Amino acid sequence: MLPKDLAKKLRYIQIRTSKTVSEAMAGEYKSAFRGSGMEFDEVREYQPGDDVRSIDWNVTARQGRPFIKRFHEERELTVVFMIDLSASGKFGTANISKNELAAELCALLAFSAVRNNDKVGLLLFTDDIELYIPPAKGLKHAMRIIRQILGYKAQGRKTNIAAALDYLGKLQRRRAVVFLVSDFLDRGYEAQLRRLARRHDLVAVSLSDALEHELPALGGMIELEDAESGEMLLFDAGSAKMRQAYARLGEERQQRLQTELRGMGIDQLKLRSDQDYQHSLVRFLRMREKKS
What we know:
By secondary structure, the chain is an alpha/beta fold. It has 2 domains: 40-72, no CATH class; 77-291, 3-Layer(aba) Sandwich (Rossmann fold). Helices cover 42% and strands 24% of the residues. The chain contains 9 helices and 10 strands. It has helices at residues 4-22, 28-32, 57-63, 98-115, 139-151, 161-171, 190-199, 240-263, 277-291; strands at 37-45, 67-74, 78-84, 119-125, 129-136, 177-182, 201-208, 221-225, 232-236, 267-272. The strands form 3 sheets. A 6-stranded mixed beta sheet has the order 5-4-3-6-7-10, with helices on both faces. Strands 1-2 form a two-stranded antiparallel sheet. It has a two-stranded antiparallel sheet with strand order 8-9. Helix 7 (190-199) links the parallel strand 6 (177-182) and strand 7. The chain is elongated. The protein starts with a helix and ends with a helix.
């Protein structure tokens, strides 16, 4: 039986996201992501006008007359959520933390996948692989995934995106739509990211909080803690120059990530815990549709 607080959160997300799936997201998800290719349908006898490149020479040789292979577009998708559960994801100065934002986003996408009869899988990671659930269909399976995202207690505190990308690359051989959901407070994963993006349709969902972009004008010194390392830093929030320098460093980090992803041809969905993620998601899906 689910703890009361987890059951309440799960019910809230189900109600909040199901309305969006039926209204704002109607058709958006399906249009934004295509099937993984062409799937074999049948072999039939050649007819005038058929493409000679489709001839099945083995069957033709056995039957003594030409036969062709027919294919149809494979519409079924496999969707995998890779979610960074490192300690920095617990941070949130607005209504929700980055981890809660990740849960709501993935719930919305998971319910959309269920409506489209797609498979959904999950990989939770920190500096180690925390949990893997293979892709499967159905509402019951999707609810299990959302429960894990909401209620899983991570063992690690730090982030190792490279190891998570390697792990999924070895397991997920068939082409999938992979949502890598993280605040990307890590380095050294670029080669693994590029490798996975060559095989799968990889979407980088970068999460951030308002306080990671700029500090409020508070008087005196404040103490900031790195959630993953525990390192403490004293900062003069009363100094306009110090606040500007802080904001500039945050902007440079965001710009560096955007440039890296664009260079690899990876689509980026930027979400902030103090802003409406649903509108950002719908805009992103419409952008994807125009590109396809």
